[in-house]
Here is the input.
Amino acid sequence: MKMSKLMAAFLAVSMAASLAACGSSSSSGEQTGSDGTQGNAGGETTDVTLTVWCPENQVSTGSMEEMQTSFQELHPEWNITWKTSIVGEDVCKDEILKDVEAAADVFMFSNDQLTDLVDTGAIAQLGGSTEAMVKETMAESVVDTVTIDGKLYAIPFTHNTFFMYYDKTLLDENDIKTLEGIVGKDTAENVYNFYFESAGGWKLGAYYYGAGCSVFGESGSDLSAGVDWNNETGLAVTNYLIDLINNPKCAYDGEITVNELISEHRLGAWFDGSWNYDAYLEVLGDDLGLAVIPTFNLDGEDHQLLGFYGSKAIGVNAHSKSMAAAVAFAAYLGGEEMQLKRYEDSGQVPTNLTVSASETVTNDPLAAVIVEEANIASVAQPQNAVFSKRYWSYANAIPTEIRSGELTKDNAQAKLDAFVDAMTAE
Here is the structure.
């Protein structure tokens, strides 16, 4: 399903004096109310311990410590002892599930881990003012990344998608509009015009979704809809990929690295996320270009590649012993002011519509391309247990077998049939 435009509506949001939430969930998913903005009835101060897990960049920049200090100042009803540990968003779920009750009260994670966190009762459902804040200050497409069966479980704070980098000495703004223009550009013999990386199926899906195929229907959660990658269109996409991956002007991941190539101006374009921007900028400087991923031409028809879109989000442990304070702090971290601070401190592009529409963000080329990518070249990544458990390994086999020669145009249909069977088997 094509993403709704993140910048299509500018919402003038007047934030309440407190951004705290009402509502958390038990492990069964039933909502239990607690208002993080309220102190004790007698006005007493309560001792609270909050364990927080966040990525390294939130600690090294000092952001998390500053946010904790300002939050404490706003909430004298709690005397908070902070316990902060570095846990990357990519491994957060794995660390939580080792011992849910001993895990952090508040944590940052990639939204593709949400299904497992919900299924294991590890993450609290959010309601009340926190739910309202998320829905009123963020695009529907962003809210969808942390919603399962209509229930909100986390607070998105930055976009998680990829876009295109290119070397301006090799390609110009006209070349990069289409994949054919990129691959077909006349370059030196030792130059690769494009770098193919499936990223375990994350980037591979852009071709199939771009052509109109899907996994579990338009919503990504309709298991009865199955997977249609073995239809006529899916076969055409696979044949296109066979030609692309075997093109001598296309470098292949695992055989040579992007960094090796760009240091010698030997790579035209590649797909990646914002997390490697500084490294690429250090090598290429002003020669580094940024753009939305291109279109590709399938049997005479142009299609916009559609990359998986997700978010990085803030969650609350369903077993937190300090639920009111934990929910209130999570809401504070995900609110407008802290999203702007996080962007200024560590370059994470905010999901808050007001902040993302500000000149501070729109004048930043990196932020602008991420927002544009989400607007016109993204599709919501499916969130269900079957997808999470099967897609990555089975999808990654497609380019791997193309490169090895095991998957050819002669057996592509049979291979796609096997892929669909594996994805939908009971």
Observations:
- The mean pLDDT is 89.
- The longest helix spans residues 385-404.
- The first strand starts at residue 22 and ends at 25.
- The chain is about 35% helix and 20% strand.
